[in-house]
Design goal:
transferase; kinase; single chain; 5-stranded mixed sheet; alpha+beta; protein histidine kinase activity; Sig_transdc_His_kin_sub3_dim/P; elongated
Length: 429
Amino acid sequence: MSGSSPDRARPAPRPRFSPRALVAPLTSGATVRAGVFLVVGGVVAGAYGLLGAGFVQMFAEPPTATPTTVVLAIVATTLAAVPPFLAPVRAVEVLAVRTLLDVDVPVPSGRPGPAARWRGAAWFALHLLLGLVAVVVLLAVVPLVLDLVLSVLGAPFVDPGWLPGVLEGEAARIALALLVLLALPYAVVGARAVLRSAAPLLLGPDQSERIAELEAQAARLTARNRLARDVHDGVGHALTITVLQAAAATRTLETDPRASRRALEAIEETGRHALAELDDLLRRLRDPGSEASAEHDDDVAMLVRHARAAGAHVTLRLVGEVGRAPLTVTREIYRIAQESLTNALRHAPGAPIHVRVVRADDLRIEVRHPWSPPPGGASVRRGRGLPGMQERVTALGGTLFAGPDGGAWVVRASLPLGVPEAASDEVTP
């Protein structure tokens, strides 16, 4: 077949030479930040070097080579060797890498394992080694450039002994000074490239840290979703009751002031309870790990009383020792009852509602009210309430049915009484 196929892989275009890219290291702030990073490493390396040189000199002189000196050397060596393995030192190195080398290394959040500590120590050594080389070169280059420039201005030139004889001319000395000065930024860029390539390997999270971070993210997401569901159910229920009561108060304001007053009192009680519940949810959001307030007993009977006060015909039947069920389970039963009553009051106003809570080997709830399919076979619009109930039940290992059943709309949930620790309502920071 002649011609070229559009699906044939094409070679990657070669990078074009750009004079701007060539001179970028001379004007880039990244070069300056990398130079600062190297100088800091060189200064620390110099401190290590002075400590080692001091002990070498002490052992080289017999009068000072005493057992006390040996013990002091062992202690000092141990103290000097420990910092590279410490988690705070690793965290500081990560922050420095992110700030000065522009490498997006994740900030460690947990306690590092042995492998991570050894990799952190290797990075510490690499940082100090390249920093020491940079500082030594800098200390050698700056005096050389000054001597070359000053010699052109008439000062005597101090020949270090390794420069070629061609530097007898002033032009050659100026050219060498400029060449050395221009080489420094490119050397820093080279060292920066080495450090940037090594940083993810030596400072990045290992497999166990990645797994721990993913688990922590999943726990945070689960806790936030739980709080979002609580806000949705609590506020939605309070608003539904308030709207119904406000409508009842408006209808009876002139004909039955007493009924209107009862409706307003119900609005006040519902609003007060909703504000207390919302304040508790916000407290748990601001204070990760805090428990739900003990002031809210999550009583299904209280929900039924509020619904009845709103004019709904609700019957409640409790079977078994419902109040002695685990708190985590009763809270979810409360939320399911709350959302089910809210939906019933909103979509089937005036219809009788039957609530039944049974404690046996598990804790079950059933909310039932008359229901007829929408005309024309229209589908039932689903909001966030039913998915939220399903998430609650799934988190506790239970089962849920929500849908039409024999001319009624039924919500039926069953939750095991033995709740795993993973279902705790704490927010992980």
